[in-house]
Amino acid sequence: MLDINAIRQDFPILSKTVYNKPLIYLDNGATTQKPRCVVEKIEHGYYNENANIHRGVHFLSQAATEAHEEARKTVQNFLNARSSNEIIFTRGTTESINLIASSFCDECVSEGDEVIVSVMEHHSNIVPWQIQAAKKGISLKVIPMNEIGELDIEAYKSLFSEKTRLVSVAHVSNVLGTVNPVKEIIEIAHEHNVPVLVDGAQSVPHIPVDVQDLDAEFYVFSGHKIYGPTGIGVLYGKEEWLDKLPPYQGGGEMIATVSFEKTTFNELPFKFEAGTPDYIGSTALAEALRYVNNIGMKEIEAYEHELLRYATEKLSAIEGMRIFGQAREKSGVLSFLVGNIHHYDMGMLLDRLGIAVRTGHHCAQPLMQALGIEGTVRASFSFYNTKEEIDVLAAGIERVRKMF
Ligand code: PLP
User: Fold this and answer.
1) Regarding beta strands 196-199 and 218-222, do their DSSP bridges make them parallel or antiparallel, or are they unpaired?
2) Closest C-alpha among 8, 16, 3, 11 to residue 356
């Protein structure tokens, strides 16, 4: 059992009031709040260990380098990666996917080749592939879903051809909350000798992830969605794959030697980290991972699952409620519409009650098209949310419904 009251004390922002109402923060899918230890880690870094890393012989530079590399090991352990060389720090999920889209397509695709994505992808797992499609003449194949928001695995199997080069899918949908069967998706891809990238933006903060068990070639996530700072994220890649892909950006750190005649690239992981990395962000992200590990990812998963069950039951009882995404395996995301009330109106009025939810297409316009809607209201949960907050949400929705 989690001591939620004690946990909430770690997040000063949760005691805020907005419009004289206690803040109820249910926009965790967009970004999570930060525990005090993460903010203190940033302050500690700038006050005590701030010097550019990897290049300095002096004390501070070595301390900052050690902290950054220690953070890489923390991420490695968190994901159960085989080696810290397989952990690349990026700016976030979006940059990680762009990195792979660019480097993979430079090395491994030619005109006419195909990349498989799913209908429920975030724009950041669609647009980078479309940019490459326009450059390289490749095409996207899309895994459809059934009416409850689960990917159609039989249809997925039928998308493979001689020209399939990569599969890139979300572990958890940011709109539907569906937990996709990525292990099975990866197994099927491997039967065709096709590598897989998993977008873990909405999974890593909520369910235990073991990249060796999943056997994904690439797995990516954002620090800010797992209680870490903004501007830092992770690309995990199997060493043999990262070794064979070309660098994404050129500059300092990523080179071994440079002359005007010939430049040679640094070894992993530095080959993919051009320029000064966010070495303060990496240590704060590691602190966030330690924080959630102390609570326990299994405990977090179970508690958030119970919150989702409770919220689904409560909200389902509201007249005119339509919940989008009823998959058998779901993570803590509830997307809904009530009667004919516009999602934006619902979000604005809930906000006045102190309830922060997200409205709109959630950067998943193709999914909205598949659902035949423009947008939804989305409540997304964290382990610091409570059933009492869900009661207030349900009462707020009911109040808005009666106004219309
Ligand atoms: N993928 C999914 C499933 C997401 O939910 C998000 C953000 O909401 C992203 C990718 C993009 O993450 P970021 O903006 O942190 O790069």
Assistant:
1) parallel
2) 16
Cα-Cα-Cα-Cα torsion 111, 113, 117, 121, nearest 10 degrees, comes to -10
CA-based nearest residue to 236, from 272, 202, 265:
272
Query: Please, which residues have CB within 8 angstroms of residue 193's CB and are 6 or more apart in sequence?
Result: none
First vs last Cα of the chain: how many Å apart?
40
User: Mean per-residue pLDDT for 372-378?
Assistant: 98
Q: Relative to the CA of 363, which ligand 1 atom is closest?
A: 8
Angle CA(33)–CA(29)–CA(182) in degrees, nearest 5? 130
User: What is residue 201's DSSP assignment?
Assistant: T
What pLDDT does residue 154 have?
Answer: 98
Task: Look up tokens 């065709």; give the residue.
Answer: 192
The single-letter code of the amino acid at 63 is A
**Å from CA of 122 to ligand 1 middle:** 7
pLDDT tens, residue by residue, 288-330:
999 999 999 999 999 999 999 999 999 999 999 999 999 999 9
Q: Is residue 206 lining ligand 1, measured as CB closer than 6 Å? A: no
Report field, pTM of the whole predicted structure over 0.90: yes
Ligand 1 and 355: CB distance under 6 A: no
- Asked if pLDDT for residue 55 goes beyond 80, the answer is no
Known catalytic residue: 363? yes
Q: What value does the mean pLDDT of the chain take? A: 97
Q: Which amino acid is at 8?
A: R
Statement: residue 146 has pLDDT above 90 = yes
Residue 162 CB partners (closer than 8 Å, separation 6+): none
Q: Which two tokens stand for residue 178?
A: 């569906």
DSSP reduced 3-state for 11 = coil
Q: Which residue has the tokens 């950054």?
A: 68
Residue in 320, 303, 327, 323 with CA at minimum distance from that of residue 312? 323
Give dist(CA 273, CA 279) in Å, integer: 11
Q: What tokens were used for 148?
A: 């409850």
